[in-house]
Amino acid sequence: MPPTGPARTALRVCPLCEATCGLTLTIEGTTVTGARGDRDDVFSKGFICPKGASFGELDADPDRLRTPLIRENGELREASWDEAFDMVAARLRPLIEEHGTAVVGAVLGNPNVHTMAGVLYPPVLLGMLRTPNLFTASTLDQMPKHVSSGLLFGDAFAIPVPDLDNTGHLLLLGANPLDSNGSLCTAPDFPGKLKALRGRGGTLTVVDPRRTRTARLADRHLAIRPGTDALLLAALVQVLFEEGLTDPGALTAHLEGLDELRAATEDFTPDAVAAACDLDAEEIRTLARELAAAPTAAVYGRIGSCTVEYGTLTSWLVDVLNILTGNLDRPGGALFPLSATDNAPRPAGPGRGFALGRWASRVGGHPEAKGELPISVLAEEIETPGDGRIRAVIALAANPVLSAPDGSRLGRALDSLDFMVSIDPYLNETSLHADVVLPPPPPSRSAHFDFVFNGFAVRNQVRYSPPAVPLDAGSMDECEILARLALALGGMHGADPSAVDDQVIEDTLTKAVDDPLSPVHGRDPKELAAALTGAGGPERRLDLMLRLGPYGDGFGADPAGLTLALLADRPHGIDLGPLKPRIPGILKTRSGRVELLPAPIAADLPRLRAALADVPASLVLVGRRHLRSNNSWMHNVPTLNGGSNRCTVQVHPADAERLGLADGGPARITTEAGEITIPVEITDTVRAGVVSVPHGWGHDRPGTRMAVAHARPGVNVNQLLDGSRRDPLSGTSVLNGFPVEVAPA
Ligand SMILES: Nc1nc2c(c(=O)[nH]1)N[C@H]1C(S)=C(S)[C@@H](COP(=O)(O)OP(=O)(O)OC[C@H]3O[C@@H](n4cnc5c(=O)[nH]c(N)nc54)[C@H](O)[C@@H]3O)O[C@H]1N2
Ligand SMILES: Nc1nc2c(c(=O)[nH]1)N[C@H]1C(S)=C(S)[C@@H](COP(=O)(O)OP(=O)(O)OC[C@H]3O[C@@H](n4cnc5c(=O)[nH]c(N)nc54)[C@H](O)[C@@H]3O)O[C@H]1N2
Ligand code: SF4
Ligand SMILES: [Mo]
């Protein structure tokens, strides 16, 4: 549709990556025709990247689904919302009634954490389902960090973030924020913050087998052998103990297990790990001494430290180093954010702790972590006959056919289901297997609030964006879609979806008034519910969370405190100040202290010790990200999928020569699990012995409706994996550092 009507502007926080930049959208009629950085945004101050600048194209993508699709006689056809929800209820309810809710598998993808709907409704939906079969993108991503935080601090969401604006030395492992814009560290203009760090005389050390754009900014780049970061970090710990450089400072009183930690790491000397890491032992010692000597320092690891053989151990060691150098929970080190919708802080004391493996997957016996099973076992849970087999799947903003190991097998498994529903704006590699596809509207039509990323932000702040453009006739807000879905599978098909929000509000308030520590203790829940403002259920729930949150007005207890009305009056957001120390209040371990050497970690250390003697594979594969991409779903926008082909295998010149590979020519990559053919890009930005292939490509499957992506499909790197490689504690797939063979095709 050509844009019509006079141009206006609207503010909208960008949902396309974790940086959460404030955008100023230009809108003509109902079309977003431009996006620039909002210079007055309290947090992002005008920063924007090419994805944010393409907000309009992504929003108006003609391939976005405008109506639900339902499968009839084997074919997907357009349908009304009533037809679609009737089908969900008619097909799911009988399955649940006959076999129980465990036969429904829920698959949650990454975009959920970028929408209000994806945070507000899955808990309701999962609460109704109570299925042991929950799978999310976390087991392709940050689950090791949740597990290490759960074990160390008693709370899987207590994830410290580096104090980028104030730190004196940043040691960054397996992250490339110049292309990813940061992760588990929400920081608009991450590149600018790294430059500022160096500008104020600080040090940046980057550990990455590739000389990334981030590594090029660094004072020191350690081109480590993939998968061996845990060894490097253990050696840094060993040096700190050995040389008497540990100094936990104010944390000391809150630590448990310091001596045991020392004993457990003493054989990981720099000399012992150097060969495995392919690093110089003296350089490891120097780094340890520099970290200890820095006025403040922060160790930070991301994808390349998580989706590897020793992901949980690596994530644990990252925080162990922050603790031993006295940098955890102090300005300039790594701190715990306190977001506006967090629970209000509580007095310190023992908590309930964090348990792993409370149940296991039916077929392979893989333990749950944080209530989730490894997404790599989804296919076998569908295929393997027996009681409790997954017969139906709800895929919510998830494209596991591309993002998880062996999508071809998973695609066949999805086809064999009794029923599948996808909530997705595209008919893509995963949703094409569904019986019902429920499309959310484009982002300009949705309100936005960062429930998740505010909790990982380098500065406490809060912003709310109402919908920039009203809903189009015939489309449905994603909050309503998910509320209706919850009702349909809970046996209340057709009920008023606002009943879902009313119930959540009632339950929350009933608990709050009973809680002696709540500002609303003893008050009447009905009167409080009536005081909530907001245009609909989701806004009223946001108002509730803000008012009961750490900065809230407590329904009048602090009249200057936060409410939705106050936030709506400040369209560029409200700054809530720098991160502040939160220990011991944040600790929820059974001891009420930081448990430095938790039993599951201690039990996994022998596996790491054995790695010291491993003979390294001659060639291993790692991933990479590109600024103009995001996982699997942004390749359908011409401005983001133009230019030279980015889906290549990067090979070091020495390896290319040894293997007889020509630049631009096709290579065949093989593993024990599969093979792909992909163009070669010879570059010395990857170290010798390592090749790099990006993920999220492979858009050539028949039956999708993404014309631009289909025309430039790339290949799916995850066809090289069968899912059997996992970090045992977290169930996270090993997506980096697995052996491959490469030959000319
Ligand atoms: N080899 C390899 N594989 C990887 C990775 C890697 O580094 N290497 N990275 C992993 C990581 S970190 C992640 S997070 C996963 C991501 O894995 P997934 O979450 O499965 O994939 P995404 O491409 O992020 O998007 C999922 C789906 O959400 C849909 N979507 C987009 N916006 C919305 C919306 O507003 N609402 C709804 N309902 N749907 C929406 C998209 O169309 C897409 O189908 O991939 C993982 N896979
Ligand atoms: N442009 C863009 N931005 C994104 C995304 C995207 O797809 N594109 N995805 C978003 C998502 S879902 C996430 S989770 C984040 C991820 O954010 P980041 O973690 O910053 O992701 P990457 O850019 O993949 O950086 C991972 C780095 O780890 C390196 N690496 C691989 N193996 C190892 C290893 O064994 N050791 C070490 N030390 N390094 C290793 C790789 O070479 C790579 O440079 O990005 C988010 N932002
Ligand atoms: S950096 Fe991330 S949040 Fe900022 S404009 Fe780019 S995609 Fe959007
Ligand atoms: Mo991710």
From TrEMBL:
Keywords from the UniProt entry: 4Fe-4S, Iron, Iron-sulfur, Metal-binding, Oxidoreductase
Keyword ATP-binding: no
Pfam families, sorted: Molybdop_Fe4S4, Molybdopterin, Molydop_binding
Entry superkingdom: Bacteria
Domain 4Fe-4S Mo/W bis-MGD-type: 7-63
Keyword Repeat on entry: no
Record-given protein name: Dehydrogenase
